[in-house]
Amino acid sequence: MTPSPAEGATQRPFADLAQHLIALRRAARLPQRVLAAAANVSRGAVQRAESGTAAPTPAVLDAYLRACRAGEADQARARRLRTRGRTAQRDKLHELKAPAPDFITTKRDLALALAELYERAGAPSLNDARLRKQLPRTTAWRIVNRKGLPASAEQLVTFLTVCGISRPAAQHPYLDAYHHVIAQRGTRPAPPRVARRIGRFRLETEGPAEQQVFPGLAAALARIISPDELEEVLVLAARQWAGRKAHRNGTAVPDSITATNLIGHGIALGPDDVIFTAGTNDRGVNLIAPTGDGGTTLYQINSLRGRPGPPPALSGVRAPTPPPRPAPVARAS
Q1: Domain boundary among 129, 160, 186
Q2: pTM, rounded to two decimals
């Protein structure tokens, strides 16, 4: 079955270039082996260039043309045919419908126009070390894939030069479009700033149990709610804290939160202070809070999981007041 012309063009996108190179070699009366030696390339590179299925590298093409002593017109035609073959081989132009430079108004239009220039130029290599200073490889990749725009007008000029647009008159419309798009981007309103407020609470550490005192927070709550409601809030907060701690440690939520004897001495606690303690076992005091009558309530958070019977009841008997301390003896002068 004879392939159609369209299928042949797809299978051999560089057929016109191959015919042109073969004609130049025959005009120079050079066999492939002799031409490969004169061009200092392998014979396989010469055969691939004349096959029409793959594009010779720019270095191989230049060496081939020099060995054949091709004129300027033949060299320009060979490079043009190579570019045309690369464009047909990549087959991306049908996806890019960019407006003319004078009609570019948005970032998308400019990105399409630059990508189209790159494809029409035969997708030239952007890995040249001489270009990396003016146009980094990452920036070039973003331009080619329509992920971004040049960061400056100098990068745009470098990109246009690589794509074969080197005359200032031809670059001018793209520079105008670039400045127009950048100016539009600069006038966009800035996003609103997030207002963050930081509350200041005094943090103190007392005693070997590392008691953390939050008088400011307790005072604020005491001004808003009643003592009974404050006590309920503290119990709920302690219960949630214990649940999170138990979940983090892989155990169940504590079975009970109980209040111990009401005492009014032995703890340096103000009327608006709340103390959270870090106990070492389930018999320690986890939370200390003042009561409305001037006393102090000690809360224990006990894990009774796995123990038989209900949790032991605590007596509500008030602790006895200790005897007063003797006054210090004054030193003799």
Answers
A1: 186
A2: 0.48
